[in-house]
């Protein structure tokens, strides 16, 4: 398939190839010129800084920058971008948050990586809660766990989260930010009032749905292609005190998905009777109950769960949460019982916990600490994250979960599968999802050794090949493609708009080269 690109992008791609031939001299020249800037003291060439910026959570791709910027304010970032944009030989720039990309998306080979976490809480980029409590202004470098702690101190909270909270605000908003709250509240990008963005032309722009809206919709879910998000205004609501946390087991996939779809049909943002969170996952006989999805189960019940998994090889787990506080404490159990009425989970296989709100939201961190203690955190993570149309989720279960995954017998990490409502997403944003009103997210969160990650990558490729042959029009979340055709197919009808926005906001293709969208030569 031939892909027609505007002549401008073709010229830029040719220029980038030519620049590769003069890489050494160009990089030395870039380094010397950087030293003449007012931000020079904040530009690091330290080998440890370079090494850190050369890798990410995925531990699969490695690409060394020439330098690392340690900004103390957004102005420093704008100065760097302006310098590159004005240079006769521009260099690439990547914003790096907490480095949880998987395939080098936050790297800039022979360019400059911006360590966003170096910005402190001053200079207007910290965490500031509005006097009326309606929103919080958050620096793009801030971690969501810090946002949670700051807002909870005033009895407030954002409503849309990710499963793991040690991610930066700018990072998740550049992708989408999804979790079990998405079916009701939408992804994190649907919960933003306004953002500050430094574009690829070094313009510092405040944008919202009513002000500079093209950049607002481009940057949210834009994979860092149009600008660096340095501040976001996030709506707040009163925070609950505690949660009722329930997991139910199934052996029939149809029952499992039907119950999920029934529960997410009650999704009004202000409907106090609706669930606050819903996710599904797989328990596999080749895995272990000792992971961050399964440590929930009481020790005395684990033998019967293991027996069930051994018998059926795959058991499906539906996880739901209902918030409550002092005012709803006496009614939450009744409300929950009404929601669960008529569901088809296995009798005797419903498990419930009562937990603090913040304990539930930060549930993954305790497992992270366990893995770090065992030396199993900083290892390759050949993950695969997909969006699957509802009409094909049963085919996916048969062809992937029951066939590829079981036959290969290597999947031991968490596997998530749960539905979302399309109407909770804003199609004007850059993020791409399936066309159907209900679609599922599937996540295979694998860890491996440094010598066998390709085995998991091969499984991921087999899964994608199966989907293509079966006519399952999947969309990747946290997308990674190795060809231009792959990106064009990914964006589909949005590709033309995506290109136009790139030309408008980053015409020299400076930003986020690690995504390999506009600098892909294949």
From TrEMBL:
| An example Gene Ontology biological process | cytokinin metabolic process
Q: Which domain of life is it from?
A: Eukaryota
Q: Where are the transmembrane segments?
A: none
Question: Which reactions are catalysed by this chain?
Answer: N(6)-dimethylallyladenine + A + H2O = 3-methyl-2-butenal + adenine + AH2
Keywords of the record, alphabetical order, are:
FAD, Flavoprotein, Oxidoreductase, Signal
The answer to whether keyword Signal applies is yes
Point out the signal peptide segment.
1-20
Which EC numbers characterise this protein's activity in its record?
1.5.99.12
What cofactor(s) does the depicted protein rely on? FAD
Q: Which family does it belong to?
A: Belongs to the oxygen-dependent FAD-linked oxidoreductase family.
Name of the protein described by the UniProt record: cytokinin dehydrogenase
> Could you tell me which species this protein originates from?
Gossypium barbadense
